[in-house]
């Protein structure tokens, strides 16, 4: 076949996924703790013999559980295979203007990939010198807006007043707030869907719910927007979520006590890790996520990244303009933090 007919696109590149267990994996922002005991119990109680049947295309049990949790209607929730799947469908559903969509120049790397894949015109809006989104830069004509809050990989969180200002200045286009990390700091914009019919808030079970392996994400929005998302889904795959994901996701969101406890542990470890890294000469952004975005005063990030890898400790390095001297370090367990700090101490002392 003639390769001239192939779609030309630069794919998203995830963090390395070493399969051996003899390593410290702090490069993909997974939750270091297991899912809720509710999930483990639900998994044991699942009727595996029913897996010969297609899952519920509406994922009603899961969607209702999410709706109950957020205090919204069933028709205000859309569930998909991770928030990546949900946001990609949002791109297809709502970004169809000839005007460019807007998102930060330093942000989740999938946004420009989807824009290229779906042939959507886009413009990257530079963060300021402190890696902060400047709300006024989005007060202009566009075909839609998307940004994470907290942002990734910086971890910086935007206040609701600034988010409201962006929405107010863009009432004719869709504004997607990607809240993959919101549970670790900041305030969710989800309640604002009752005020704005152009707001879509996306969330995931992969981070604070410890369920990256299940691939569950969702959107909360006005009923008309959710209906449009369902139209898009049913135009290419009605059965996006598996039976297991529906059942186990519904169990996970009902265990509020475990959720609060786990998030609190990660936040505590984040703050402790930040202090220990500062003593080693690192500086960092004010992260409200489950990772830290750090740079060292003397040693280049690329060298630290490689030296850590030699010690079987994986963090994330982005060889991109403005952030090529930063590392993104996922918050793991206290034991993993100890291993990280010990390795960094050895690396930095050896460089003196």
Largest sheet: 5 strands, mixed
Distance between the termini: 56 Å
CATH class of the largest domain: Alpha Beta
Please give the domain count: 2
Q: How many helical elements?
A: 10
Q: Give the rounded overall mean pLDDT.
A: 95
User: Any idea what the CATH architecture of the largest domain is?
Assistant: 3-Layer(aba) Sandwich
- Unreliable runs: none
| Rg (CA only) | 21 Å
Give the proportion of residues in helices: 25-40%
How many DSSP-defined strands? 13
Give the DSSP E fraction (strand runs of 2 or more residues): 5-15%
Structural class based on helices, strands and sheet pairing: alpha/beta
Per the CATH scheme, the topology name of the largest domain is Aspartate Aminotransferase, domain 2
Q: Could you give the order of strands across the largest sheet?
A: 2-8-7-6-5
Order of SSEs: EHHEHEHEEHEEEHHHEEHEEEH
CATH homologous superfamily caption of the largest domain: Type I PLP-dependent aspartate aminotransferase-like (Major domain)
